[in-house]
Amino acid sequence: MAIQWFPGHMHLTKKAIAERIRQTDVVIELLDARLPGSSANPMLADLTAGKPALKVLNKQDLADPERTAQWLAHYNAQPATRAIALDASATAPARTLVQACHALAPTRGSMAKPMRVLICGIPNVGKSTLINTLAGKRATKTGDEAGITKLEQRIVLADGFYLYDTPGMLWPRIIVAQSGYHLAASGAIGRNAFDEEEVGLELLNSLKGPYADLLTARYGIADPAGLNDEDLLDAIGRQRGALLGKGRVNLQKAADIVMHDFRSGALGRITLETPEQFAQWLAAGQVLDAARQVKKDAIEQQRLIKFKKIPRPPRADSA
Ligand code: G4P
Fold first, then answer.
1. Is residue 129 in contact with ligand 1, taking CB distance under 6 Å?
2. Measured from the CB, is residue 124 less than 6 Å from ligand 1?
């Protein structure tokens, strides 16, 4: 079953971004480096109307460095886009962000023409952590100045360089099934919105090919790729003592263990998707989504005809 989850504030956030975007020079999108495609928000491109974009692959300390390099190259090849990798241990994140934004908008950043940067990201991607580090002892304004909307936060990163944080967050409509599972595995989706065993199985499915050695090292299972997902989860549960009565494995607990080990980095540095994989998933997801929409439109049309809101179309053979 595909996962769908919508936190609140969507409307508020869209409105805040639409208001701010006119006076924005660069949009920073914080992505989770372990799932850059799935943690991106496709809606953002429409909302930000072609403004230069800085993709920040955050939590790079947990991600696979080789795949992070692939994603950086992927984004850096896009027009008006730059990408950098970051994590909470970075000693001078402000300097890194300032430099990257200057490269995207070289005419901005003076007192006369300040650099105005908007930062966005889905929940749990590390936005508050980064903003707290950036704000440090610098003045942080919250909506008490002309030009700053209610609840909006403004951080002065350097002279003539302002970072605006929008209230609430944007959440993608999940049209790629794998994205739902990856987001749930990463901790971005509320616990009550998914089935742990199902997400654990999908996580193992993504891990057992590229990261079989890490599974072997952590759980002592000789050939994880040779097992189906159910047997692999069962073997992990058994190995970890996640048992019910009569020697049966508590699969939910086993799934919890795998997810916890992935989230905390105990399994090792992992990235669940490559740019090529994600592009394929997205293309397939868009085809399915379009088919769903056609079906929905047809049902809606039938409803309108039934309640006589629109006339019944002439039959093809009535001419
Ligand atoms: P958000 O505002 O985008 O929702 O995310 P937030 O900063 O609250 O961070 C979500 C979780 O991710 C926090 O962990 C935070 O410590 C962790 N985090 C943020 N940046 C990084 C990073 O670069 N690397 C790693 N490894 N972790 C990062 P938590 O368990 O929810 O809370 P806590 O352990 O900080 O109490």
1. yes
2. yes
Tokens for 253?
Answer: 């607990």
Q: What's the rounded Cα separation, in Å, for the pair 20 and 18?
A: 6
Ligand 1 centroid distance, CA of 63 (Å): 14
Q: Report, in this order, helix, strand and coil percent for the chain, each rounded to 5.
A: 50, 15, 40
Burial of 29 (0-12, 13-18, 19+ CB in 10 A): buried
pLDDT bracket for residue 2 (50, 70, 90): low
Q: 5 pLDDT band (50/70/90 cuts)?
A: low
Single-letter code of the amino acid located at 78:
Q
Q: From the CA of 247, how far away is ligand 1's center (Å)?
A: 37
The answer to whether 38 touches 199, Cβ cutoff 8 Å, is no
Quick one: which atom of ligand 1 is closest to the CA of 129? 7
> 35-48 pLDDT, tens per residue?
999 999 878 888 88
pLDDT score, position 161: 93
Query: Which of helix, strand or coil describes residue 10?
Result: helix
Distance between CA 229 and CA 69 in Å, rounded?
29
Tokens matching residue 249: 């494995």
Q: Is the pTM of this model over 0.85?
A: yes
* pLDDT value of residue 1: 55
**Closest residue by Cα to residue 57 from 68, 65, 42, 70:** 68
Q: Is the CB of 128 under 6 A from ligand 1?
A: yes
- The CA 128 to ligand 1 mean position distance, Å, reads 8
143: pLDDT confidence band, cut at 50, 70 and 90? Answer: very low
pLDDT > 70: what percent of the chain?
89
For 298, half-sphere exposure in the C-beta direction (CA atoms, 13 angstrom radius) is: 6
